[in-house]
Amino acid sequence: MMNIMPWTDEHKERTRERIVQAAAAAVRARGVDGVSIAEIMAEAGLTHGGFYAHFGSKGDLLRAALDAANGQTLDMLSAATQSLSAEQRIDAVVDTYLSPKHAAHPERGCPLAALGPELARAPSDVRHALARGIERRVAWLETFLRGTEHDEKDATALLACMVGGLVLARAVDPAQSTAVLDATRAFVRRGLDANPQKRATARTRSKSTRRRRKGRTA
To answer: What does the pLDDT look like over 115-166, one tens digit per residue?
Structure first.
């Protein structure tokens, strides 16, 4: 009788990663409800029956796929900032995210823009996975705003503007998509450029007010 050797842990991990990567691309391209486990496994070059050796449910796979997709997006944006000065990096992030190439390839892009509205109605554990991705992205954006007058709220607003702009660019007629992206980039840049000046002026006025009050009470 021929002995069948069990798969090594390394082989299992590689297989699981193939499934995750296939799922990350498929759900971003066609939506969570638009792709089945059988289709994902086929795109990974595997049979449907092998799925449950790696995941307990489609929800388990979706959480792993969201983490992978978020990681891919951060890698893409990080690559755009290499060899740039601190002042140039946030502009590079905005340009890369709100680019025609990103808009044209949701299967390789940000899962927040591709799946956000759909996942808002997903089970709570999947929504929590999406929330973790949002928190991670906001924290990442904050690193580019340190040393400026911007704060965590600005990083959250920046992400919201970029995601919303990308969603709209994909929703409109292709002839209008570039105009939407251009308008969103310009709006974001005005916000990033204007807020520090306004806040610096407000702080100066606040300090002057405190000095006047201190003088009156002296």
So the answer is: 987 887 888 888 888 888 899 999 999 998 887 778 778 999 999 999 999 9
* CB distance 211 to 181 below 8 Å: no
The two tokens of residue 159 are: 């992400």
**What are the respective helix, strand and coil percentages of the chain, to the nearest 5?**
80, 0, 20
- Look at the block and give the residue holding tokens 């002042």: 87
Taking alpha carbons only, the member of 165, 144, 169 closest to residue 154 is: 144
Beta strands in the chain (DSSP E): none
Tokens of 61: 């796979």
Instruction: Please say if the pLDDT value at position 205 is more than 50.
Output: no
- CA–CA gap between residue 139 and residue 176 (Å, rounded): 32
pLDDT, one tens digit per residue, over 26-42 is 999 999 889 999 999 99
Q: Half-sphere exposure (CA, 13 Å, Cβ side) for 174? A: 2
| 70 contacts 111 by C-beta, under 8 angstroms | yes
Nearest to 137 by CA among 161, 102, 112, 172: 112
Q: Per residue in 161-179, pLDDT tens? A: 999 999 999 999 999 999 9
Tell me which residue of 172, 176, 139, 173 sits closest to 158, measured CA to CA.
Answer: 139
pTM over 0.85, yes/no? no
Q: Can you list the pairs that 30-33 forms with residues at least 24 positions away whose Cβ atoms lie under 8 Å?
A: 31/115, 31/118, 32/62, 32/115, 32/118, 32/119, 32/122, 33/118
The structure tokens 């990096």 sit at 89
